[in-house]
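To: structure desk
From: M.T.
Subject: fold request, one chain
Message: Could you run this one when you get a chance? Sequence is below, nothing fancy, just the single chain.
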Amino acid sequence: MTTYNIELKSDLLEINFGEPASNDRIVIDAAARLEEMAKAGILRGGQLLKITGPTSIPVAFVLAHRLCHLYGAIAVFDPKLDKFVICITHHPTYNLGDLID
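Reply: Done. Structure tokens follow.
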């Protein structure tokens, strides 16, 4: 088992903590999982990636750094708004702060 779980379902990246660990271990596991997914051709990039699930700030930085080079825009789910918020964008269709379903 790993300390951090990452699964891609279409344009939705589902993330969640696994085995209990501290962030120094979790960031390594998250980066390794993203690399594994990239090598397997699972992370191919695209126009938009939506992310949902719990994360820590250090892990969020690992995700952002690795994924922002592959996708035109990245949106993260905000449960208070019950919507995804565009938080990274290099795509003309999506503006920073846009809310999407």
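Reply (cont.): The chain is about 30% helix and 35% strand. Let me know if you need anything else for the meeting.
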